[in-house]
Every structure is written in structure tokens, then in C-alpha cells.
Write a structure and sequence with these properties.
Structural class: mainly alpha
Number of strands: 4
Order of helices and strands: EHHHHHEHHEHHHHHHHE
Radius of gyration: 19 Å
Largest sheet: 2 strands, antiparallel
Strand content: under 5%
Helix content: 40-55%
């Protein structure tokens, strides 16, 4: 296995173990509530959280429109997501009595289920072809559940796990950090929003008005980091429609706000109470810290979310090497 050029662990995390000798098909390991302790002490948790924090730091104070390097693997990942987008156009919603959960999503998902390994093979170089089956599992997990026709933060986490695995095998490098968030993850968000709108997907495990958002979490973390130390935009501006309209193309957080207001009706304070509360926080740095804590508590430490996470050789259930 190729040595990763990434130092995924944050300063507090333990160093990574030596690369695994062989790849494997990831599988579920968290089957009961007590298993959550295994997850929190696992190498997978350390690598996953370290990856998120590394990207959080890299986008700090930077606009989506800033210049950054776009490597060949980044371009191939965008092509992969463009393919998923095209498949939506080729798979129109069906006429059905129920408003939500259009069954055409299952036909769209079948295309991904059958084609995921071929798609991933376009991104992974031939000498790493043995990794394709392992990495492709996370791509398949990242788009929603085909039985329930729903999508939530666990699916979003699978996409970040997919990117993390590509970093661990050396396909993505340290100097791809900005492009990972601004180009690949942004494109992923566009495709997921199109899926949600086209097939009227249900939120997976939604907490309604008490949740941050019905579908996503990470763009709020990385989006708030982008806004740290901004000379004009403060958290209070996120509820200002004019400010959001004028600045959403440069900041992921404001794109999320715009999408929320397009999808929901009624007063903002009622349909998005948590976001409304964030507008009272004095600084983006405090918003960012609070969202990282909230993500751990509301997503990574919730059994209904993590029971679906899969572990292989790249994201291992084994305890962090001391």
C-alpha cells in the first residue's frame, strides 16, 4: 500500500500506525450501544476527525473564489460527480401517489451500486487498483439509503470517509486541501441537493427544528471557518437576506442558508431555530468551535448515525496506536 502523504492526525491525536498490508471490504462494527466506545477510541475516529480539522484549518479565512491548485485526481473526482449528476437527468422521477421518497431514486442508485468500482477506478492509479473495492464502498454509502429513500449526516460522513481514504492511499495530497473542500465537496453538495429535490428524499434521523439542518453539517463547519476574521461579515448577517444573496458565491455557509430558505417556508427563526441562534454568537471563531463540538455530540457520538459506518483497512476499528 502506498504511504500516505497526509498527516491526518491533529496535534492531539496519536501518530498513525504503519500502513495495513492488505485492503478489505469495509463492514459494520458498531452493532450495540456499548460498541460506541470502540468507535470513539478507534484509529478510524482519530483519522476521520483529524481529516475534518485539517481541512477546517486549511479553508480558514479563504473565499470559494480564491485561487488554488487543481490536480488531476481532483479533476477526475469532479468528473465522477458530474457522472452522478448526469444520471439524475437520465432517471426522471416517477408518477406516484406519495409526495416524498420518489421510487426513481432506487433506479438511480442501482446505477451507482453497479458502477461505483468503475467510477473509483478512474480516480485511483492502476498500481493502487487493489484499493478500489474498499474505497468504492464509501462512495456507495455517501448518497443516501435506497430502501428508505432518505439522506442525512451519516451519508455525508461516508463521502468524507471516501475522500479521507483517497488521501491515505496517496491519491490526494496535502496541497489538494483547498480543492478537496472548494471543488470536490462543493460539487458533492450540488449533486446531493439535486438528488434531494428531484426525488424528494426524506431527512435521515432529522431532529426537525432542533437540528442544524435536515441534510448536511460539514459545510457549516468549513463555511464558518471561511468567515473567521472577515472584516465585514459577522454571524448576525446570516439572517440578512440581502447579505446572503450578495455573498453566497464566496462562502459555503451562506450557500447553505440560501438553500435552506429556498426549501423552507415561514419565518427563519421558526424553521431553522439552531441557525437563528448562531446569528447571536459574537464571532465566527466561536461559531466554528461550537459547531465542531456539536458535530461530535450530535453526529459522531450518536448510535443511530454511527451504526451504519463501515470499517476496513484504511479506516480501522482498531484502537489508536499509543
Amino acid at each position: 500500500m502506498a504511504e500516505s502523504k497526509w498527516h491526518l492526525e491533529s496535534a492531539k491525536d496519536a501518530p498513525q500506525p504503519a500502513p495495513c498490508p492488505s485492503f478489505m471490504i469495509p463492514k459494520k462494527e458498531i452493532t450495540m450501544l456499548p460498541d460506541m466506545q470502540k468507535w470513539k477510541h478507534s484509529q478510524a475516529y482519530a483519522d476521520y476527525m483529524g481529516f475534518i480539522l485539517k481541512l477546517n484549518e486549511s479553508v480558514k479565512g479563504k473565499k470559494l473564489t480564491c485561487s488554488y491548485k487543481v490536480s488531476e485526481p481532483i479533476e477526475k473526482l469532479v468528473d465522477l460527480l458530474d457522472t452522478l449528476d448526469r444520471w439524475i437527468d437520465e432517471t426522471p422521477p416517477e408518477e406516484q401517489p406519495s409526495r416524498f421518497g420518489n421510487k426513481a431514486f432506487r433506479r438511480w442508485y442501482t446505477k451507482l451500486d453497479q458502477g461505483a468500482e468503475n467510477l473509483v477506478a478512474t480516480v485511483v492509479p492502476r498500481e493502487l487498483s487493489e484499493a478500489v473495492s474498499e474505497v468504492a464502498v464509501y462512495l456507495k454509502e455517501s448518497v443516501g439509503n435506497s430502501t428508505r429513500i432518505d439522506y442525512g449526516t451519516g451519508h455525508e460522513a461516508a463521502f468524507v470517509a471516501f475522500l479521507c481514504c483517497l488521501c491515505k492511499i496517496g491519491v490526494l495530497r496535502v496541497d489538494d486541501q483547498l480543492a478537496i473542500v472548494f471543488k470536490v465537496f462543493s460539487r458533492y453538495l450540488e449533486v446531493m441537493r439535486k438528488l434531494q429535490k428531484t426525488y424528494r428524499m426524506e431527512p435521515a434521523g432529522s431532529r426537525g427544528v432542533w437540528g442544524l439542518d435536515d441534510f448536511q453539517f460539514l459545510p457549516f463547519i468549513w463555511g464558518s471557518s471561511q468567515l473567521i476574521d472577515h472584516p465585514n461579515l459577522e454571524p448576525q448577517h446570516l439572517v440578512d437576506e440581502k447579505v446572503v444573496n450578495e455573498n453566497h458565491k464566496e462562502f459555503m455557509f451562506l450557500q447553505c442558508i440560501l438553500f435552506t430558505t429556498e426549501m423552507k417556508t415561514g419565518p427563519f427563526a421558526e424553521h431553522s431555530n439552531q441557525l437563528w441562534n448562531i446569528s447571536a454568537v459574537p464571532s465566527w471563531a466561536k461559531v466554528n468551535q461550537g459547531l465542531v463540538r456539536m458535530y461530535k455530540a450530535e453526529c459522531l457520538e450518536k448510535f443511530p448515525v454511527i451504526q451504519h459506518f463501515k470499517f476496513g483497512s484504511l479506516l480501522s476499528i482498531q484502537p489508536v496506536a499509543s
